[in-house]
Batch of 4 targets.
Target 1
Amino acid sequence: MTAPYPHPVSSWLDPDTGALIPHDELMAEMAQNRVVLLGETHDQYDVHRWQLHVMAALHGRNPNMVVGFEMFPRSTQPILDEWAAGDLSEEAFLEKVDWKTVWGFPPEMYLPIFRFCREMGVHMIALNCYRALVTRVGKEGWDAIPEEDRDELTPAKPATDAYRDYLFSLVSGPDGIFQQQTEEAKARKDHFTRAQQTWDRAFACNIAKTQTGDNPPLVIGIIGRGHLEFGHGTPYQLDDLGIEKVSVLLPSGGESGAREQQPGIARACFRLPKVHGTPANHATATDRFVREDRIRS
């Protein structure tokens, strides 16, 4: 990778060209899309503030909008509807969706986004499938899953070699099991890839369901960045489903923001200000993308 482009704080950069993009210009472009996916690192407060700011900017340009959330399985959709209708307190909402079990990250990071949706009348949609499906597909493969257990999903388009390499680079160092040339390593790679693609396909299928009729809404996707970068994951599955005009936006942090300057990683990256007092145990996006429980699922 070449030396990073100059990327001032609070600015958007095109990682393909190194050009800075004016905020108004980029938001006007994004508002014409069908889907805008806002990648996140789940445990970083500043990233969720950034998501909220982008949502507000896009809503001001295109109020025909829905917001989809990775953290909610489809079974929680009636509860999201209750929340949006103002029928639940925050405490009751979090309890009914079983937040501690389905997600577990501090709800204070996400509540401003949930409040925005309710206050502005923006429909919230659950993008995820039920967790046991991911585990089963990982272990058994899609064809082993009975039709009635597929949570209304279609089979994922097979992963490219580039996506597999990307996934393994995130979760395995040079001495990790995914780098080994053993039958056990091969089986775990296949298991892991199938599991990740189940999530990718679930997000894509549930987004695609909104894109019907004469005036489909702009969908904002709140999704972990590892499902979005370099056109892999959910964008790849959306393309397979025939959904066009999809863009990925990412936050950029670190001392140089160099990681987000790799060509093809996203349409644009926003340089966040340095966060002071961030807990020392907060990890980078690549460290946090897949926790050990996902590898073992």
Note: The radius of gyration is 19 Å.
Target 2
Amino acid sequence: MDEWATRVAAVWADAGNRPEPEVEAAIESLVAERPDDAVAIFELAGVRDFVGREAEAEPLYRRALELGLDEPQHGQAVIQLASTVRNLGRPDETLALLRDEFAEHPEHPLADAATAFAALALADTGAEREALVAALRALAPHLRAYGRAVTAYADDLLG
């Protein structure tokens, strides 16, 4: 991790202990050092989300992805963009973003996180049962004693 990324990580590590405007100002200051950098733009999008300005975050996430992000930021940006558009009232777009990015990569380290956000979007569309099934299927592999049973019950929910 380079020195700039270390400073960004320090701001986020302390974000819960600082007023939101202070966190935003700190990230903005760091982003100003790298105005055309995909990772910096991703961080700016994240802080806009953090302070509840999702409409401002959305184009920033899209720009960061367009400029090109390596993992793990690429997957994080897709998930955060998907969450943002969900919060903006577009759950179908959330599902499309997550499906396009993660459907063919179930081994992706963020696949379970993507499933969690997909489950939220499914619930927003009125598909609560499908949301529960998605969440249970993502959880099941992490259950040593009951994973197989939870998977079977999830399958049963869809009849």
Note: Residues 3-92 form a domain with the Serine Threonine Protein Phosphatase 5, Tetratricopeptide repeat fold (CATH 1.25.40.10).
Target 3
Amino acid sequence: MTSQPPRILLVEDDPVSRAFLGAAIQALPAAVDAADSMAAALALGATGHYDLWLFDANLPDGSGVELLARLRVRDARTPALAHTAANDRDAIEALLQAGFRQVLVKPLPATALQKALRQVLEPDTDGALASAAATDDTLPDWDDETAARALNGNREHIAALRRLFITELPAVIERVRNAFRNEDFQGLHGELHRLRASCGFVGATRLQHAVQALGDDERSHARLQEFTVAAQALTASTEPTPA
């Protein structure tokens, strides 16, 4: 890196994921401008040069592919990476074909994100991207080991992200249930897509599995009930701080 920290444009609409990714980028160190929509990202993109773009594949007012295409009209050289919670080979290939250098699958540890960014900012850096996923069969409400891996064991960051996660969760539960009730499956998948990544960042293992199950069986009232019970258990939690 140069003597001046690189400037990175981060686009992520989920507040928990945005906080996690922003903190990981700042620790490179790097300067980060964060946007929660395509419109906000376009406004920031017009303010000056960035050394790297990091875009969510799915945004409330468009897509990462569309955002990249619009920014490319005036900037053909800035390297771009995509991030997504959809670990689907066809979707990842489509992002690569659209011009993203790498596709990062969320949730992933801060170290993996930083390694991927350094590979672009410092082309001589060795190493391949690795992602992490929760695989605890006991399905605890909070998996401290998963959260610690994602945030390099920083207890203060874990606690702060969990507080933000719990604050946002009641509104997310309501949106998921309304989408299910109205058979708005596109809206339902959008909410579950964002929530699955957030669960991984904070170690909400039981809810993460319930989110995946509901996404796989979107018409199942039993899956919706499992999701609701898992989510409400976290909103009732009084001590989300890792042990």
Note: The chain has a mean pLDDT of 86.
Target 4
Amino acid sequence: MKVHLVLVSVALTALLLTATELAGETSPAAAPSTPAPGVPSVLVPSSAPVAPSSRVYASGSDLPDGPGFPSSGAGTFHVVAGEGPVVGTGPLRTYAVEVEDGITVDEQAFAAFVDATLADPRGWTARGARAVRRVSGPASVRIRLASQQTARAVCGFEIPVDVSCNDGGFVTLNGARWFRGAVAFLPDLTSYRRYMVNHEVGHAFGQGHQPCGVAGGPAPVMMQQTFGVANDEIVRITGGVPQGAFIPRDGKVCTPNGWPFP
């Protein structure tokens, strides 16, 4: 099937992107594409510097080059200690932050990123739709950072792409994507992480997938931007596997966006 072009800016379309490595504080010149199984990684700060890479990506769904990431863990999770105030107005939704046992990350940094994302006025609390509060006990949404293999087991790998997912209020964020991001967002790892959190929590809040609606405009946060920001590209990658929404093959291409209300 012919690969369709992905728009990476309003003025420039190109699916074949010269990528940027998402490097850590001590970035090697050429980090391996895939870590050794079971090797843990330390959480990369969202402000980490990036180094150039010569790789050209064939698809918007490719996992970018970058630092190592947790490839496997125990498959069980523990709560990251901490609670927070009520943010927003409207019906209250509580959430807990969890990390998979057996992977080594800066858990407080991960939890702080989730907190800041959900508390942002551009997030799901905008316009009085709902309020959120982080708790350490029972919660309506549990946001989990998982290893690559655990995420594949939970979210599926029928389409051979590393993705995150929500299942009954259990939000699984794929560690491979947390550390590497997605082609459409390169080199902005921070924005992609916001997208991960908001997209999957959006599913937990009852939101379904959406296509790019306005060519050149910001992608809806519920668009499957891990696959790309072009409707045609998403149709090509998903290959007829149901996505819970009709995605038209209409040539529309959006710009990357991680906020429900940008």
Note: Confidence is low (pLDDT under 50) at residues 1-50.
